[in-house]
Design goal:
- Strands 9-8-10-11-7-12-13 form a seven-stranded mixed β-sheet, with helices on both faces.
- The chain contains 14 helices and 13 strands.
- The mean pLDDT is about 95.
- Helix 7 runs parallel beside helix 8, helix 9 packs across helix 10 and helix 13 packs antiparallel against helix 14.
- It is globular and about 60 Å long.
- Strand 5 and strand 6 form a beta hairpin.
- It is α/β, with parallel strands linked by helices.
- Helix content is about 40%, strand content about 25%.
C-alpha cells in the first residue's frame, strides 16, 4: 500500500465519523463508530495487506525500530489537519494496527459538557489533577479542551509530555511546548526531572504509567506547578488505589501522605451512546477536601464513594448521579441508564 492509498483509507474513516481504525490479519478492515466495530470490507485482511498498511504508516527508521521492539506508537497527519495516533503491534507473528482519529479542532468545553468542572479546575495554581477511564473514553480530548481554554485566556508556560503528540494547540496567549516520547525525550521520569529548569506553570503528563513517573509528578505538584495526568482506571477510588499500589509497601505511607496533600481533583469518565447518535460522557468527580485527604492518608479509600455522595454541594458527583442527569436531559436512553446505574453504585 502506498501513502496515497493509506491517506484515502484514513480520510474515509474521518468521513464515516469513526473514532478508531483496526487492521488485523484474518479480520476485515474495521471502523469503530459510536463505540461499535463496523466491518468495512467483506474480505479478511491478508498478512501481506496488513504489512503494507503498517509500512505505509511508518518511516524506514520507525519500521526498523518496530521490527526490533515489536511495538510502536506514532502520529500521522492528513492534509486536512486531522491527526491520528497509531499503534503498530504483532499478533501471532503478524503485524496489526490500531489508529485513533484526533479531530483537527479541539472541542469546546460546552461541546464536552465540561464547563462546570473546568471552572473548578481553574481555581488551582498547583497540585495534581487526573483524568481517568478506560482507553478510548475521551481523557485526552477533555484535557485538550481544558488546556486550550487556558491557552486562549491566560499567559502561562505549558509543557506537554506525550506518547505520541495528539492534539496540536493553536497559537494563543500561552507558550505551549509539546514534546513527544522517543523524539524529544527518552523517558518520562527523566523529562519530568529536567522540566523544572524549563520554567513551566502547567505540565501535562500523557500517561502516568510507572512508579517513577508518578513519584516525579507528585514532587512537581508539591513545588508549585499544576500537573495534569491520565490513568487507565475506571473510577476515582481505584485511581487512588492504583497510584498507591504501584509502589512497594515501605514507600506507600509516604505516597499516601504526598497524594493526600497534592491531589486536587480526579475526573473519571466513560462514553455512553447518545440519543440520536454519537456518544456522551458519564463522569465521576472527586475534589480533595479535608475529609478526602484524611480518607486517603488513613487507608480508607473504600469510603470515597460515600464522601462523594455527601459533598455534591461543592461539585462532587457519582456516576449514578451523573447518569440520572443525562437521562433527565434526554441525552441517554432509559435502557442505557438502567445498564449503567447498577454498575455505578
Amino acid at each position: 500500500m502506498d501513502k496515497q492509498t493509506l491517506t484515502t483509507l484514513f480520510e474515509s474513516a474521518v468521513a464515516a465519523k469513526a473514532s478508531d481504525i483496526h487492521v488485523a490479519v484474518g479480520s476485515p478492515l474495521l471502523f469503530r463508530i459510536d463505540g461499535n466495530l463496523i466491518p468495512q470490507t467483506k474480505q479478511e485482511m491478508t498478512a501481506e495487506q496488513a504489512l503494507g498498511v503498517v509500512k505505509a504508516v511508518l518511516s524506514e527508521h520507525q519500521f526498523k525500530r518496530f521490527s526490533e521492539e515489536k511495538e510502536i506508537d506514532v502520529s500521522f497527519s492528513l492534509k486536512s489537519g486531522t491527526r491520528l495516533r497509531v499503534n503498530c503491534s504483532f499478533e501471532r507473528g503478524y503485524v496489526a494496527l490500531a489508529a485513533r482519529i484526533i479531530p483537527f479542532a479541539i472541542p469546546t468545553l460546552e461541546e464536552l459538557m465540561l464547563t462546570e468542572i473546568a471552572q473548578r479546575i481553574y481555581r488551582f495554581d498547583d497540585g495534581l489533577i487526573l483524568f481517568t477511564g478506560p482507553t478510548g473514553m475521551g481523557k485526552s480530548t477533555s484535557l485538550a479542551s481544558i488546556l486550550q481554554t487556558i491557552n486562549a485566556a491566560e499567559s502561562h508556560h505549558i509543557i506537554t509530555l506525550e506518547d505520541p503528540i495528539e492534539f496540536l494547540f493553536p497559537k494563543g496567549k500561552c507558550l505551549v511546548r509539546q514534546r513527544e516520547y522517543g523524539q524529544d525525550f527518552l523517558t518520562f521520569p527523566e523529562a519530568l526531572k529536567r522540566v523544572l529548569r524549563q520554567d513551566p506553570n502547567i505540565i501535562l503528563v500523557g500517561e502516568m504509567r510507572d512508579p517513577d513517573t508518578i513519584s516525579a509528578a507528585l514532587t512537581l505538584a508539591e513545588t508549585g506547578h499544576l500537573i495534569f495526568g491520565t490513568l487507565h482506571t475506571p473510577n476515582t477510588m481505584q485511581t487512588i488505589d492504583r497510584i498507591i499500589d504501584a509502589f512497594s509497601p515501605h514507600q506507600q505511607s509516604q505516597i499516601r501522605a504526598q497524594l493526600s496533600l497534592s491531589l486536587k481533583m480526579v475526573i473519571a469518565q466513560k462514553l455512553l451512546p447518545r440519543v440520536g447518535g454519537g456518544r456522551v460522557a458519564l463522569r465521576e468527580v472527586l475534589i480533595n477536601t479535608p475529609a478526602v485527604s484524611n480518607t486517603i492518608r488513613d487507608q480508607r479509600t473504600q469510603e470515597l464513594t460515600t464522601v462523594i455522595q455527601t459533598a455534591e454541594n461543592i461539585g462532587m458527583v457519582t456516576f449514578a448521579k451523573s447518569a440520572e442527569k443525562l437521562l433527565k436531559e434526554g441525552l441517554i436512553s432509559k435502557e442505557t441508564y438502567d445498564f449503567q446505574v447498577p454498575a455505578a453504585k
